[in-house]
Amino acid sequence: MNPDPCTLPFTIMSKEKILKLLAASKTGFVSGTDLAFRIGISRTMVWKHIKALEHEGFVIEGVPSQGYRITTTPDLLRQADIRQGLKTRIIGKDIRLFPEVASTNTLAMEAASQGAPEGTVIIAETQTKGKGRLGRQWISPKGNLYFSVILRPDIPTHKAPLITLVGAVAVASAIRKHCSVLAAIKWPNDILIVGRKVAGLLTEMSAEPDRIRHIALGIGIDVNMALEELPLEVRMNSTTLSAETGANIDRRLLLHQVLQDLEQWYKVFLTRESDVLKEWELLNMTINNRVAVSGSGQAFEGLAQGIDSEGRLMVALEDGTIRIVAAGDVTIIKGYRG
Ligand code: BTN
């Protein structure tokens, strides 16, 4: 069973207050007595909170005559400040953060079936059974972003795959803005930088024949992990945002950018879906390339010509016939000059 979402009882609030006071101090130092007085707790409690923060990865120096000072802040998402500065109205109204889950998508589907509102975001630092497309595993070590967004669009069921395209547009444009790298979409939902995968999306749905109950739009972005965390066969075609930029990426700010772009493109989708398809085409690296299509019982090559109004890939074969691909793997054939 997955844990309950983090809440903010008094003890956690005191710990957060200690962090705020230490961060706000001009010298960096605040004495234990001062912390205890300003929060209204005992010095023993201050000491216990300091130990708890050290356990979370903070390195805190204690100097007898001056007090405590933070020297290293861990790369952790924190429930207390994750919403701060997020400029969205629907997406992220309810954010649930977990240290570890089996899969944020599984949890989001469960939460949605129990009535969680549209825009709820389930985030985890790690996943033990992260799900990829076509039944694959999504290896989920610490340092990256793993989250799922609950959506309840009032659209016909056959249009649901377009939600993945909305997500791909949001992720590619957010990465471009936040990291200044040329992220591009490979059909249907891979985000690549110079040919290496940096993010993937997985959409799951509960629906009736003519109506969508809810969707979990799952997004995994390789941000700060060491590439060695991935098995060799995956590592060869993968990258991370920190490897591409040469800098550690602030995951909270990147998450904000993705959620903001997602809200923007989701709204566009609900009013003028053709605008999303146009943006997808601008950000994609598949169309006008020769591709090999495999998986889901198919194996052929052809020229990727475009996507149709349901987001399916149209591939022209040698004999001029057009194959419509709804699911599968696409490899861009390098070195082709035809
Ligand atoms: C793919 O490219 O194969 C899709 C990967 C999707 C991974 C994300 S991580 C958050 C969410 N939870 C999951 O179990 N999967 C998605």
Task: For the structure shown, list the relevant keywords.
alpha+beta, binds biotin, 14 strands, five-stranded antiparallel sheet, elongated, disordered N terminus, 338 residues
Quick description:
The protein has helices at 10-24, 32-39, 43-55, 104-113, 161-179, 232-235, 241-245, 251-271, 273-283, and strands spanning 59-63, 67-72, 95-101, 121-127, 145-151, 183-186, 190-193, 196-208, 211-221, 290-295, 298-307, 313-316, 322-325, 329-332. The chain has 338 residues and is of the alpha+beta class. Strands 3-4-5-9-8-7-6 form a 7-stranded mixed sheet, sandwiched between helices. It has a 5-stranded antiparallel sheet with strand order 13-12-11-10-14, with no helix packed on it. A two-stranded antiparallel ribbon has the order 1-2.
Helix-strand blueprint:
Elements: H1 10-24, H2 32-39, H3 43-55, E1 59-63, E2 67-72, E3 95-101, H4 104-113, E4 121-127, E5 145-151, H5 161-179, E6 183-186, E7 190-193, E8 196-208, E9 211-221, H6 232-235, H7 241-245, H8 251-271, H9 273-283, E10 290-295, E11 298-307, E12 313-316, E13 322-325, E14 329-332
The structure holds biotin (BTN).
Spatial order of strands in the largest sheet: 3-4-5-9-8-7-6
Beta strand %: 25-35%
End-to-end C-alpha gap: 54 Å
Low-pLDDT stretches:
1-8
Q: How do the helices and strands follow one another from N- to C-terminus? A: HHHEEEHEEHEEEEHHHHEEEEE
Label the overall shape: elongated
The helix content is 25-40%
Structure annotation, total helices: 9
